[in-house]
Amino acid sequence: MALLTLVLAVLATGFLMVSRRSLDAIIRLYALQNILLALVSFELAGGEAHFILAGLALFAVKGVLIPWYLFWLVDRLEVSHEVEGYLSVSLSLLLAGLLTALAFRVGEAFVLPEAPLPQGVPVALALVLLGILSMVSRKKAISQVLGFLALENGVFLMALSESHGLPLFVELGVALDAFAAVFLAGILIFRIKGEMGHVDTARMRSLRG
Fold this sequence. Notes:
There is one protein chain. The chain is mainly alpha-helical and 209 residues long. It is 76% helix and 0% strand. The protein has seven helices and no strands. The protein has helices spanning 2-19, 23-45, 49-77, 89-106, 120-137, 141-163, 168-196. Helix 1 (2-19) runs antiparallel to helix 2 (23-45) and helix 1 (2-19) packs parallel to helix 5. The radius of gyration is 17 Å and the shape is globular. It starts with a helix and ends in a 13-residue tail after the last helix. The relative contact order is 0.15.
């Protein structure tokens, strides 16, 4: 029951990340999502040390370090903390609901016979779809990076749900890769801000030849 509650709480954070228009709130929700995923890893551990270590790495790198870096990045860029998107909040929520319903409708087809957390599969699929929705419906590069990170969390939950987790060195590598990707994205966003004076990807369409 506690495990199911945690999984549903993870889904709730993904849903809220799509609907919020405050960059600070979305970063906090991303941090909370990772902390909840770390708790899911602890619940699935069953005394196995590599699950506990993977959960601690998830908590430290993606629950604390990456959100802290994103807050630092937003302050240094001196950009608006309001998230601009192509869709209204109501339309974003409607699409998020439809995508979540689709994930639950088709999710059972992806559940493996001996999956340790079958109820996590449709939630993982929903997180992937919600992450894609965030990436394509928002204008600012930082909010698009957060959409990618939410998508990556869906892939992580899928691995936990289907295969009782990946080997520890793979999970540590994924966590560090995520931080490296965000760090490099931050450098790229700094360069874009320096050259263009903004980080609005919608306005960059005028650069097409």
